[in-house]
Design goal:
- Chain A: Its main location: membrane.
- Chain A: It comes from Halomarina rubra.
- The complex is a heterodimer.
- Chain A is mostly helical.
- Helices cover 65% and strands 1% of the residues of chain A.
- Chain A has 2 domains: 483 residues, Cytochrome c oxidase-like, subunit I domain (Cytochrome C Oxidase, Chain A), CATH 1.20.210; 140 residues, Four Helix Bundle (Hemerythrin (Met), subunit A) (Up-down Bundle).
- In chain A, helix 2 packs antiparallel against helix 14, helix 5 packs antiparallel against helix 6 and helix 7 runs antiparallel to helix 10.
- The N and C termini of chain B lie far apart (54 Å).
- By secondary structure, chain B is mostly helical.
- Chain B has 3 helices and no strands.
- Classes of the chains: A mainly alpha, B mainly alpha.
- The interface between A and B is large, with 68 and 48 residues.
């Protein structure tokens, strides 16, 4: 190691000097952490290290790029002439739908999160993410959701109703194939992966920054990831609600979207676009962050108006939840609300103007070095400007009457989305030397850029000119044929450009020049201050920015002086104080763990369950078996992972900056982030109920249960069980094993009682001919209270596990697991407090 | 935290749940009853969150996180429901 106390200028400070690399390659032996070596296949199944997971994400995402790209080429070949025939009608619809779904979900975000996984902990000075095993779980859920999607092609064809999955085309009457259900369930599994990942990144970035690295000084890429995961947490919860309802319509037979009388198709549009518009920024923000980093590095100066750049991004993240109805201008929603959303849509373009000018002005003020990453980042900016301007047309209600459902839309969103991809391709060149320790070939990189940029504009720009071509349809007026042929040629050029990239990366990996810690000379962020690739635990010491620039401290002692608490509470603290809180969880002296097989196992189980569910309505033995086996394996692996918690050590404190959650422990904060997303999940269910009831006629609606009294009994039961959990926590705090066991047992019995009571109620309704598909009233009643009951069941499984452990004397010296379970259980209670009046009384 | 406080809260929750059904049978005008019953639910939820989930004693930032989720859900519910009125 080089001198660890050399001050290093960092982002947030002024980069006036080049960052010296920290030294030669240091390949730390991984064995003592229970992690097999890089060359071992086993390592890649068990690793929980953020850099390994990042590489897995990048490689897997690139596979899906190829998958979606081949589908795109099939589409373009079909369009060489109007009414092409290389694909059948149904196959074309499937190609279009799965191209969109794969690129948006399985390529774009995971590609960005590969870099986020690799770079964010390095940028903030953390050894790993807050919950390393959950990070591996995110990855495996993602991979298996993709496998599930692949399988859907072989179950009578995959989903064929477009990536927006509009109702009522998405219900079994119009799309009966099992594969369509599987594709929906695959997306549901992907959503689970995203939720777990969001919770993890939010906790990590908020809680685990190095001392002195305040949010204000945080690198821009990390900033964009932070805002992305904030949007993801809430947006994907709405998508999860939409997908659960849709799956239920397809598997259980509820009639939410089949409803011909009460707004089924508009309901889908609301749920989908409430997620779908933030999603645009969710996929674009990481690209923007990478672009900002690359602009800084290759212009040799800090971004112009950095503070305002960040403020503009925060504004966009907030505004992104207020524009969704501009996707619905041609539905039956009323004119005032359309006008309102037109205004908010124009409004959201303003912060982007600021960002664009900040980037342009940075190039003017700096001295540009035209390396491959910069070419891609700069190209991305140019493409994004064109995509943005053409989007403003679509934000106007009147113009939308002409443009909706045409290739104008297709061209616009490809300029934006693939504009984002361009930025991320820049990112892979930018971080390639960091991730591999080798330099790519600059000449081939430039060739890639040339082919890419020409190919891109050749495929998408003619779409503006042939904009009257109907979207998703392979027939078009013959007059547009030259434009479409040009686009097809462009598509193949664009595709071929990636072959150059793959070749370049493959050859460079084997025989590329070895890269120093900092191969770019001017850099401002901490990932360049360590060797390429970085050692397993990232830093030669404890990173700190207290002196205004990055330093590595040898000792683990408290910071020299009290630093004002970052949460603004005015109290002062030192890291020693924080250590007392964080260190108590797992002890100070352990080594971090980096290997666990359970995330892989849980994902296999989830995969089996969902594959089984897809064909369950058919009653085939295979599907029933898969479902049962999946649930069995799920229970086994979840218990396995829970038991491993006693020996698996994630990063523990002391951490540096934790604003605004300085006094909350990581696990508790993670639980709260999860619950906040669950609020949106249930909120969207209740929102769907309110929407349908308004569409139906509020007072014409008939409440399904005849009598509120069984509901009231269940309210009593659930309230009492909540109280029992509180008593369990008190007992654990007092060290009373018997009190703890009895309280948990009471909780369990009450929960079972709640389910029993509900079972009797459902049984009676069933025998009166009231079931899931009877009417929209019964559908909403059974599904919403059913989702709640599922939460109760999950809670009871956890109670059973805790009961066994409590019997053995656990939790008495550390009652936090009981407390955190309580947070969940009380939340389930709160949900019921609203479901009870809404579904039983009013 | 003392058990007595928890017990009192539990009692209040129990009574409020009963009140909600009582309001239903009191023969009030529908929307008045609606308002009262939902208000009672809101108070109950606040009590559970503030004391059983001890949000009162946590940094305020956690409350804000949950509130953001709640506001998002309400925005979706209200705007979606409003969007199909008057057409």
């Amino acid at each position: 190691m080089s001198d660890d106390t050399t001050p290093r200028e960092t982002d947030g400070g002024h980069a006036t000097a080049d960052l010296p690399a920290t030294g030669d390659h240091v390949h730390e032996s991984s064995h003592e952490h229970g992690l097999p070596p890089m060359e071992s296949i086993r390592r890649w199944f068990v690793t929980t290290n953020h850099k390994d997971v990042g590489i897995l994400y990048v490689v897997t995402a690139l596979f899906f790029l190829v998958f979606g790209g081949v589908l795109a080429l099939l589409i373009r070949v079909q369009l060489l002439e109007p009414g092409g025939t290389i694909l059948t009608d149904a196959a074309y619809n499937q190609a279009v739908s799965s191209h969109g779904l794969l690129m948006v979900f399985w390529f774009l975000s995971p590609f960005a999160f590969g870099f986020a996984n690799y770079v964010v902990p390095l940028q903030i000075g953390a050894k790993d993410l807050a919950f390393p095993r959950l990070n591996a779980l995110s990855y495996w859920l993602y991979l298996f959701s993709g496998v599930l999607f692949g399988i859907s092609f072989f179950q009578g064809g995959t989903f064929s109703g477009g990536w927006t999955m509009y109702a009522p085309l998405n219900v079994p009457i119009y799309m009966p194939n099992i594969g369509a259900t599987t594709a929906i369930l695959a997306l549901l599994m992907f959503t689970a992966s995203v939720t777990v990942g969001s919770v993890n990144f939010l906790t990590t970035i908020h809680r685990m920054r190095a001392p002195g690295l305040t949010l204000r000084r945080m690198p821009l890429f990390t900033w964009t990831i932070l805002l992305t995961v904030w949007m993801m947490l809430f947006a994907f919860a709405a998508l999860l609600a939409a997908l659960i309802i849709l799956s239920s319509d397809r598997i259980l037979g509820t009639v939410y979207f089949a409803a011909t009388d009460a707004g089924g198709s508009v309901l889908w549009a609301h749920l989908f676009w409430f997620f779908g518009h933030p999603e645009v920024y969710i996929v674009f923000f990481p690209a923007l962050g990478a672009m900002a980093e690359i602009f800084q590095t290759f212009t040799g100066r800090r971004i112009v108006g950095r503070k305002w750049f960040i403020a503009a991004m925060v504004l966009v993240a907030l505004q992104s939840f207020l524009v969704w109805m501009h996707h619905m201008f041609l539905t039956s929603i009323n004119l005032p609300v359309k006008t309102l959303f037109m205004a908010t849509t124009i409004g959201i373009s303003l912060p982007f103007d600021l960002m664009v000018f900040a980037l342009i002005y940075t190039t003017i003020k700096g001295r540009i070095r035209f390396k491959t990453p910069f070419l891609f980042a700069f190209g991305a900016l140019a493409l994004f400007i064109l995509g943005g301007i053409t989007g403003v047309f679509l934000g106007a209600v009147v113009l939308d009457f002409e443009f909706r459902g045409t290739y104008w839309v297709v061209a616009h969103f490809h300029y934006v989305m693939v504009g984002g991809v361009t930025g991320l391709v820049g990112a892979i060149y930018y971080w390639y030397p960091k991730m591999t320790g080798r330099m790519y070939d600059e000449f081939l990189g430039k060739v890639h850029f040339g082919m890419y940029f020409v190919g891109f504009n050749l495929v998408y720009f003619p779409m503006f000119l042939a904009w009257e071509t109907p979207r998703r349809v392979f027939d078009y007026p013959a007059v547009f044929q030259p434009w479409h042929q040009l686009a097809t040629a462009g598509a193949f050029l664009l595709g071929a450009s990636f072959l150059v990239m793959f070749y370049n990366f493959y050859v460079s990996l084997v025989s590329g020049e070895e890269a120093a810690g900092d191969p770019w000379r001017y850099v401002t962020t901490a990932e360049w201050a360590v060797p390429s690739p970085p050692p397993l635990e990232n830093y030669p010491g404890r990173p700190s920015y207290d002196g205004g620039s990055l330093q590595f401290l040898e000792d683990m002692g408290p910071r020299p002086s009290g630093i004002a608490a970052a949460d603004g509470s005015g109290e002062t603290r030192s890291d020693g104080g924080v250590a007392a809180v964080d260190g108590a969880l797992t002890g100070e002296s352990h080594e971090e763990s980096h290997a666990s097989i359970w995330p892989f196992g849980i994902s296999v189980a989830g995969f089996l369950v969902l594959l089984g569910l897809s064909g369950l309505p058919s009653g085939a033995t295979l599907y029933v078996t898969l479902t049962v086996a999946g649930f069995g394996l799920g229970l086994y692996t979840l218990v396995g992972m829970a038991r491993e918690s006693q020996t698996f050590h994630g990063p523990s404190g002391p951490f540096g900056e934790s604003w605004p959650f300085a006094r909350v422990e990581n696990t508790k904060l993670g639980m709260w982030f999860f619950l906040a997303s669950d609020v949106v999940l249930f909120g969207a269910f209740i929102g769907a109920y309110v929407f349908i009831r308004v569409a139906f006629g509020w007072s014409a609606w008939e409440i399904v249960p005849h009598d509120p009294i069984p509901g009231l009994m269940n309210t009593y039961i659930l309230l009492t069980s909540s109280f029992a959990v509180v008593l369990a926590m008190v007992a654990a705090q007092k060290g009373s094993r018997n009190g703890l066991v009895v309280s948990l047992l009471v909780t369990l019995l009450l929960g079972v009682g709640f389910l029993g009571n509900k079972g009797i109620e459902w049984y009676e309704l069933y025998h009166e001919g009231q079931w899931l598909s009877t009417s929209v009233e019964t559908s909403t009643y059974f599904l919403t209270t059913g989702l709640h009951a599922a939460h109760v069941i999950v809670g009871l499984v956890i109670v059973c596990y805790m009961l066994v452990r409590a019997w053995g004397g656990a939790y008495l010296d550390d009652d936090r697991p009981v407390e955190y379970f309580g947070l969940y259980w009380h939340f389930v209670d709160i949900v019921w407090l609203f479901l009870f009046p809404l579904f039983y009384i009013l | 935290m003392n058990t007595r406080l928890y017990t009192v809260i539990y009692g209040v929750l129990f009574v409020f749940a009963t009140l909600q059904v009582a309001v239903e049978f009191a023969g009030l005008d529908y929307w008045t009853a609606f308002g009262v019953i939902m208000a009672l639910s809101a108070v109950k939820a606040l009590l559970v969150a503030a004391y059983f989930q001890h949000l009162r004693y946590e940094p305020r930032a956690i409350t804000y996180v949950v509130t953001i989720g709640l506001v998002a859900a309400l925005a979706l519910t209200l705007a979606a429901a409003y969007s199909i009125t008057g057409t």
